[in-house]
């Protein structure tokens, strides 16, 4: 490809990306953000993670003791990897694409070796979310037990890919998975969609999940994480848990209208 062709391609990509960003900004500028406002428990050592896992186990065991159910909002973060560009033009193109596309699957992309899963986020209510720096702490046995226990549902968007990555990177199994995109299609009916966390949040709560590239594509291996990273990580896990609670209380599409109204009225208060 000639230098002129590469420059033309670069201009087209940049122009498309800028238009996309402008449209998103205009559409979302008045939409309030959904954030986690409870206490973030940040664990960086094996003993800290072990203590956090004990707390989570006690919580879910109590909830399921009398036949109840316990869902755990689940998410992971890792440091992004980029293929080294051979020219400045290719670098610009690759950087722009990275800012508009987020690869959540655990497979390698474009021959670039992916970094290991660095951070694990677990959230079970509005009060506390756990952010565990697993790259530095490792996995204590009680955390492995929690993640592998089929009695406790782990919920998230694209959660199967995250679970595969945890197993691939750390040889730890995550079982009992509920993908929120699939659950949303089941509950909302209509033409099935590939829901993302942001789009599903807007649909169900009339709020948005902020995904600033500076944080999303930042260094999740840094020890310690910044306060912005902790807030971002906790919010993702919290929103996953919250959306499950909303969806789980909605009737299936074939439910009678009266029952549907009753169920929706009992759903969390942020539902649109």
Kindly describe this structure.
- With 272 residues, this protein is α/β, with parallel strands linked by helices.
- It has one domain: Nucleotidyltransferase, domain 5 (2-Layer Sandwich).
- Helices cover 50% and strands 11% of the residues.
- The chain has 11 helices and 6 strands.
- Strands 1-4-3-2-5-6 form a 6-stranded mixed beta sheet.
- Strand 3 and strand 4 form a beta hairpin.
- Helix 2 runs parallel beside helix 5 and helix 8 packs across helix 10.
- The termini are far apart.
Topology, element by element:
Blueprint: H1 3-28, E1 39-43, H2 46-64, E2 71-77, H3 88-100, E3 119-123, E4 128-132, H4 134-137, H5 141-148, E5 153-156, H6 159-170, E6 177-179, H7 180-188, H8 197-205, H9 213-216, H10 227-249, H11 257-265
Parallel strand pairs: 1-4, 2-5, 5-6
Antiparallel strand pairs: 2-3, 3-4
Task: Please summarize what this structure is.
This protein has 272 residues and is α/β, with parallel strands linked by helices. The chain has helices at residues 3-28, 46-64, 88-100, 134-137, 141-148, 159-170, 180-188, 197-205, 213-216, 227-249, 257-265; strands at 39-43, 71-77, 119-123, 128-132, 153-156, 177-179.
> Assembly state here?
single chain
Globular, elongated, flat, extended or rod-shaped: what is the shape? globular
Q: Biggest β-sheet: count, sense, barrel?
A: 6 strands, mixed
What is the CATH homology-level superfamily? Ribonuclease H-like superfamily/Ribonuclease H
Quote the distance from N terminus to C terminus. Answer: 50 Å
Question: Could you give the count of β-strands?
Answer: 6
- Side by side, the strands of the main sheet go 1-4-3-2-5-6
Structural class of the helices, strands and pairings?
alpha/beta
The tally of domains stands at 1
Residue share in β-strands: 5-15%
Rg from Cα? 20 Å
Instruction: Tell me roughly what share of residues is in helical segments.
Output: 40-55%
Return the CATH class.
Alpha Beta
InterPro entries: 3'-5'_exonuclease_dom, 3-5_Exonuclease_domain, RNaseH-like_sf, RNaseH_sf
Protein name: 3'-5' exonuclease
GO molecular function, one term: metal ion binding
Subcellular location: Nucleus
């Amino acid at each position: 490809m000639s230098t002129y062709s590469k420059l033309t391609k670069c201009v087209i990509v940049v122009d498309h990306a800028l238009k996309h960003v402008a449209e998103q900004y205009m559409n979302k500028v008045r939409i309030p953000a959904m954030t986690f406002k409870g206490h973030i428990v940040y664990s960086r050592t094996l003993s800290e993670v072990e203590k956090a896992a004990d707390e989570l186990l006690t919580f879910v065991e109590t909830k399921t003791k009398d036949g109840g159910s316990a869902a755990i909002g689940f998410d992971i973060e890792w440091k992004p990897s980029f293929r080294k560009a051979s020219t400045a033009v290719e670098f610009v193109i690759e950087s722009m694409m990275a800012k508009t596309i987020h690869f959540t699957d655990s497979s390698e992309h474009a021959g670039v070796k992916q970094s290991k899963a660095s951070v694990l986020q677990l959230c079970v209510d509005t009060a506390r979310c756990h952010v565990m720096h697993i790259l530095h702490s490792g996995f204590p046995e009680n955390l492995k037990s929690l993640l592998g226990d089929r009695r406790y549902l782990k919920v998230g968007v694209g959660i199967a890919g995250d679970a595969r990555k945890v197993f691939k990177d750390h040889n730890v199994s995550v079982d009992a998975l509920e993908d929120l995109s699939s659950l949303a299609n089941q509950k909302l009916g209509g033409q099935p969609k590939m829901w993302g966390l942001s789009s599903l949040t807007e649909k169900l709560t009339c709020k948005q999940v902020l995904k600033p590239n500076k944080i999303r594509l930042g260094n999740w291996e840094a020890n310690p994480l910044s306060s912005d990273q902790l807030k971002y990580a906790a919010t993702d896990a919290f929103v996953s848990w919250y959306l499950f609670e909303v969806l789980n209380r909605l009737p299936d599409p074939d439910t009678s209208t009266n029952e549907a109204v009753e169920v929706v009225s009992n759903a969390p208060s942020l539902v649109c």
